[in-house]
Design goal:
mainly alpha; 0% strand; 10 helices
């Protein structure tokens, strides 16, 4: 019998807060306290959470051997053997198709946003995260798709400046994530070959921080 707690841990509940980005369009348009729109967005967040949890499971299945050598990720349930790989694949399929099923009740474009996110994350896990620069772009795209998905839910138009602000901050966060990972992995060379050096990431962080400041200002 598979205990529920390892499944919940694999679904990354601490990362669900990222899906609050779906509220961005609602908040900045001044419609946050419109009950119908707010409730629709909450439902969309729950659907997107299913999608994100499914790709976390897929990532852990593909990276299970690598995670065993990682100083932090070795504690993940799949890497520890608390969840079998076949069962994890079953959960991935169940959650991904479930999220698409429920997304179809929201709107067609929201369905496309969820589908695009799942496909992007599958490609990221299989290919993109081994390619310098492209992996940062993929991480940033995940944040941007959340913003777009929230706009599709309530059928709101996003201004060009709002999109630029979102893209610049998303790139900054993605580069910051890689910077933090590099600092952790430097003492564990068996984990994975390094895609970047500190000077490279420092340059990216400076560039994206500047673009963020200019766009928001």
């Amino acid at each position: 019998m598979v205990h529920i707690w390892p499944i919940i841990r694999s679904a990354r509940p601490t990362h669900w807060v990222k899906n609050a980005a779906l509220l961005a369009a609602l908040f900045f348009s001044g419609n946050l306290f419109v009950p119908e729109l707010f409730n629709a967005t909450l439902f969309a967040i729950a659907v997107f959470t299913m999608a994100t949890s499914s790709v976390y499971l897929f990532n852990d299945v593909i990276d299970s051997e690598y995670d065993k050598e990682h100083p932090v990720k070795k504690h993940r349930p799949i890497a520890q053997g608390l969840i079998s790989l076949p069962f994890a694949v079953f959960l991935f399929v169940l959650l991904s198709f479930g999220s698409l099923f429920f997304a179809s009740f929201v709107s067609f474009f929201f369905f496309l946003a969820v589908l695009s996110y799942i496909v992007l994350q599958i490609f990221y896990t299989l290919i993109l995260k081994t390619l310098p620069v492209f992996d940062i772009l993929a991480i940033a795209a995940g944040f941007i798709l959340r913003i777009w998905a929230g706009a599709f839910v309530v059928n709101l138009h996003l201004s060009v400046w709002f999109i630029l602000c979102t893209i610049s901050v998303a790139l900054f966060l993605a580069a910051g994530k890689r910077k933090a990972e590099l600092s952790i992995l430097e003492a564990h060379t068996k984990s994975r070959r390094f895609l970047y050096t500190h000077p490279q990431l420092d340059s990216y962080l400076t560039m994206f921080a500047t673009s963020s400041w200019i766009a928001w200002a």
